[in-house]
Specification:
By secondary structure, this protein is mostly helical. It is about 90% helix and about 0% strand.
Length: about 130
């Protein structure tokens, strides 16, 4: 009778360990899927940030170019300088707005992985 009791416990223990391993692998796969989804979102936000930064740089360079041309035309005492002043102001305001928008994106944390990090912390707390 004692032999049958010990043989009955053996497969139960192995089955429990196998079930635990399956659950751990499933948990890891779900976390990897979540991380891959969030990384694709971060990649899209990073691409947006790069485009906004590039546009801000172009606008800033245009502001410098029109500002330089404005100085030249101001020395000539003609009426053409007014449009250059307007163009300089427009591009300077555009550059400032784009930089502020990029900084707002960074402050909002659009490049972080909040759901993945929260799940990993929960997993760590559960295991410890």
């Amino acid at each position: 009778m004692d032999k049958s009791a010990s043989s009955h416990q053996g497969p139960g223990l192995i089955a429990s360990i196998a079930g635990l391993a399956r659950n751990a692998v499933g948990l890891m796969l779900s976390r990897l899927e979540l991380a891959s989804i969030e990384l694709s979102e971060v990649r899209n936000h990073l691409l947006q940030l790069v485009v906004i930064f590039a546009l801000a740089m172009v606008a800033g360079l245009f502001a410098i170019a029109y500002g330089s041309v404005l100085v030249v035309f101001l020395a000539w005492d003609s009426l053409g300088w007014k449009i250059l002043l307007i163009m300089t102001a427009v591009f300077a305001l555009l550059a400032v707005w784009l930089v502020m928008h990029a900084r707002a994106m960074l402050r909002q944390g659009k490049l972080s992985l909040p759901a993945t990090m929260a799940e990993l912390k929960a997993d760590r707390d559960m295991l410890i």
